[in-house]
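Escalated from tier 1: heme C holo job.
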Amino acid sequence: MTKAGDDRPIMDHEYDGIKEYDNPMPRWWLLLFLVTILLVPVYYFAPGDIGHGAKKEAMYQKEMAAFKAAHPDAGGGTVTPEQMAAIVADKAEVEKGKALFAVNCVSCHRADGGGLIGPNLTDDYWIHGGTPVEIHTTIDQGVLAKGMPNWGKILKPDQINSLTAYVVSLHGSNPANPKAPDGVLVAATPAAAASAPAAAPAKTP
Ligand code: HEC
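Tier 2 regenerated the structure:
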């Protein structure tokens, strides 16, 4: 506390009788301030994981590439036909997919897959392809412009796999009152090739 009447300079404003000493900033505070200014170029151009600039971006890309290499099935959309064939043949996957379908898909594709807002998933007509990998891609990425959600953003990759297995298992189940075919006729499986009417006209959306 400073005693009244000392001779330190007083600033020339006054508010409601309150005056203010013209005290300098403490030296240590000013020095710290100057040091932070001197550090700006270090942070701005710094290599490595501090600072700004292209290096940060490059580091992110490198880390993502390393992660993808270490986790090939993360992010859904990168399944191989061999992986899908194994999943589709697995009865446990089909059962898991059935439960997920009941929760997420029936509102648009109907409980039996016969189609409602979304197309019939049991026939030989596909808009986006009827192979397991293509079905997986449609479920994973959706068709947002047409109202099919991108489930890869909502569900986990293994759930997308299970759903694919279930959708494939619906093929040829011939539900009552199905939605009219959408898309083009494709023989997705050898069974489909055998049962598809040879001269059915391919309807385009
Ligand atoms: C909000 C409605 C809606 C929901 C919910 C929905 N879908 Fe769809 N789905 C659609 C529509 C609409 C299409 C047709 C897209 C087009 O016309 O390109 C479609 C297309 C598809 C196709 C491609 C069919 C083809 O002919 O190529 C598959 C497979 C599919 N949905 C699976 C699913 C699964 C699995 C779920 C649940 C996880 C699901 N859908 C949930 C609306 C929906």
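Confidence is low (pLDDT under 50) at residues 190-205.
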